[in-house]
Amino acid sequence: MEYRCQKRLTAIRSKKARALLVSSVLERLYPDAECSLDHENDPFRLLVMARLSAQCTDKRVNEVSRELFKRLPNPEAFAKAELGEIEELIKSCGLYRMKAKNLRDMSRELIERHGGEVPRTKEELLALSGVGIKIANLMMGDLFGDPYIVPDTHCIRITHRTKLISKPEPTVCINELSRIIPKAEQSDFCHRIVLFGRDVCSAQAPKCEYCPLATELEKENI
Fold it and tell me: What's 136's domain CATH number?
């Protein structure tokens, strides 16, 4: 399937120029884009919520987290909790057995290795149970002032559709976008593209006829 924007975008031979155009349209659409998880600028809260978000909507994670953090507000509470209790609290997020074990193991690691605090380096984050590159990059950009590309499913899908990346794979997404999206803008770009994916460029039924990116290209006669 060829999407409405694709032929026009591929006419822009430079990937950097293509990325600049996509980024500028997204910025106009979503000037105040930020993480959809209600983490309240709490590193531990975001770490937990980001793990819960795997194969689950941010809306569901936000709903589940209200009761979850009332019952288990910090690493110490998670570390002492029975797995069954954590599982019951997060069951509607899917993959709950694996996630519950990861969250308890991660909390114990935070206590044993970092005094109960969330570490501020990517290497230390990646060493925690259940934390992959997507979560580590999200944490670094949103809370620790070091933006990175976050290879969310929306980001991978849309940047591949718009020919900004060569393959729809997380590592390719990070490596190739990092070369064409300015470092300071990487977190904002990823948050905006998630919103665009939800509103317009969905996986199964993209609303190409309403696509503001395609419309902008047509206005510019590209």
Answer: 1.10.340.30
Write down the pLDDT at residue 222.
64
Distance of alpha carbon 43 from alpha carbon 193, whole angstroms: 23
Tokens matching residue 92: 């509607």
DSSP 78-136: HHHS-HHHHHHHHGGGSSHHHHHHHHHHHHHHHHHHHTTSPPSSHHHHHTSTT--HHHH
Has residue 1 been placed in a domain? no
The pLDDT tens digits for 48-90 are 999 999 999 999 999 999 999 999 999 999 999 999 999 999 9
pLDDT digits (tens, 9 = 90+) for 175-199: 999 999 999 999 999 999 999 999 9
For 121, the domain range is: 43-143
* Residue 210 and residue 120 share a domain: no
Number of domains observed in the structure of the chain:
2
Question: Residue 10 is part of a domain; what is its CATH number?
Answer: 1.10.1670.10
